[in-house]
Amino acid sequence: MVLSSALLSPLHRFPVLWCSYRPLLRAARTAPLDAHHRLAIEQYIKRELRQWRSLRTALKVQPKLREAEEFIHRLESTAHSSAHLERMRELADHLILRHAKKPTHVVKPRQVPKPAPSIIRATAFNPPMQREWRGWIRKAQKQEQREYKRKDMRISPELYATVRGLRRSIARNKSAAGQARRREAQLPAE
User: Which top-level group of life is the source organism from (predicted)?
Assistant: First the structure.
């Protein structure tokens, strides 16, 4: 079966984005740019066409084909115009910065060890304590702490008596000195 030339003409075919893929890559590889700029543009073309792969209708494909043709024209015009060449370099620099890969090996900060909890966490075999128990345990712990403080602060009865006597004598001396000052203050006034 031989197809007529009308069926084989490009006007009869459904527009497909992949028909512009090879010309785009060829134009990017032959553009008078640095190697890293060319690589950035090639990766951009591959990324874009991968995103456009799902487009099926002619209404959505036609604008993308027009964009591809314009981009091919811009890439080919870089050989003739320094302004176009400068624009392509700026685009490539932008693409390099935009799609820069993150460093593969990142030093993680050292983890601070967490202190072990004082109470064992509840599990299936260790059910949680009831609230009343927690309150009783807390009261018992506070009572224990108070007793330890009292034991640490305890002094012998003899020492307590001497300290008490010293305090009383100091208080008497202060009151006697205060009374003497008052008397002296009253004498000149009379």
Answer: Eukaryota
Q: Extract the tokens encoding 74.
A: 């811009």
78-93 pLDDT, tens digit per residue, is 888 888 889 888 988 8
Tell me the two tokens of residue 69. Answer: 């043709």
Exposure of 95 in the CB half-sphere (CA atoms within 13 A):
19
Assigned token pair, 182: 């008052």
For 128-180, write each residue's pLDDT tens digit. 777 777 777 888 888 888 777 767 666 666 776 777 778 788 888 888 887 88
Q: Are 77 and 84 in contact (CB under 8 A)?
A: yes
Query: Tokens in use for 12?
Result: 């009869």
pTM greater than 0.85? no
- Alpha helices, DSSP H only, in the chain? 5-8, 21-30, 35-52, 58-77, 82-98, 131-153, 157-186
What burial class does residue 14 get, using C-beta atoms within 10 Å of its C-beta: 0-12 exposed, 13-18 middle, 19+ buried?
Answer: exposed
State how far the Cα of 178 lies from the Cα of 112, in Å rounded to an integer. Answer: 62
Helix (H) or strand (E) holding 114: none
Return the H-helix or E-strand segment holding 16: none
Radius of gyration of the chain (CA): 46
DSSP 154: -
